[in-house]
Amino acid sequence: MAQVNRGSGMIGHGTTLGRRMMDLGWVLFLLLILWPFLLMVAVMILIRDGRPILYVSERMKTPTQGFKLYKFRTMKNVDQDSGVSGGDKAHRITKTGKFLRRYRLDELPQLFNILKGDISFVGPRPPLRRYVERFPALYAEVLKDRPGVTGLATLIYHRTEERLLEDCKTPEETEAVYERRCVPRKARLDLLYSKRRTLGFDQRLTVATVFRRVAPVYRPGRTKWLL
Fold first, then answer.
1. d(CA 19, CA 124)
2. DSSP string of 116-130?
3. Confidence of residue 5 (pLDDT cuts 50, 70, 90)
4. By the number of CB atoms within 10 A of the CB, which of 20, 53, 93, 189 ranks highest?
């Protein structure tokens, strides 16, 4: 059972009782109204692409504690797969997967991760273990907050990251670009978020995620939120 830190209002790792209650309220509401759609997507993947329906990947919620993150499968199966997705994996994306990725519908199963308490709606994206081990000092700070489905770094840098990685032709190139250009910039934004994290700010980031035309704007050395 999670223990409440009465002095700080924290419950579990990197979240408050109020934030956890808000997460539970929203996730139960969304599952109630979205379960027919989730079932429809699952059946579509099963018919068009076969099993498995879900892609399960280990991610880190603390520097030492991993968990299984759920997504709808968007790629063809291979015997070995590791690292982030770059241009070297583009040929594996299915037609169904392209549609799901375009609208980020592949991430809907993460509602069950929120229900379990692995992640929150808003927070830094949970990293792969390999990057936590590669940059331990950096992620020791980032993962003081409970990871989330969306967040400041996701909203600001996601499209830039996709653009950088889609030109990579080999796993080695993808890895080098991600570590050099994506990890430090996303971590900087995650730490900025941590400094001004409030329930109200989380709600604004959630709205910005749903209505993508209303999004934060980032320039090196200066961050401006248009929310």
1. 15
2. HTS-EEESSPPPPHH
3. very low
4. 189
| Cα(169)–Cα(126) distance, integer angstroms | 25
Q: How confident is the model at residue 76 (pLDDT cuts 50, 70, 90)?
A: very high
Three-state secondary-structure class, residue 11: strand
148 three-state secondary structure: strand
DSSP, residue by residue, 79-105: S---S---GGGGGGB-HHHHHHHHTTG
Report pLDDT digits (tens) over 144-193: 999 999 999 999 998 899 999 999 999 999 999 999 999 999 999 999 99
Tokens of 153: 């770094």
Residues 98-150: tens digit of each pLDDT: 999 998 999 999 999 999 999 999 999 999 999 999 999 999 999 999 999 99
* CA–centroid distance for 17 within its chain: 21
Whether residue 70 contacts residue 56, with contact meaning beta carbons closer than 8 Å, is answered with yes
The DSSP result for 19-87, as a single string, is HHHHHHHHHHHHHHHHHHHHHHHHHHHHHHH-S--EEEEEEESSSS-EEEEEEE--B---S---S---G
The alpha helices in 143-227, defined as continuous H runs, are: 152-166, 171-177, 183-195, 199-210
CA-wise closest residue to 120 among 210, 1, 11:
11
Name the residue among 71, 190, 174 with its Cα closest to residue 125.
Answer: 190
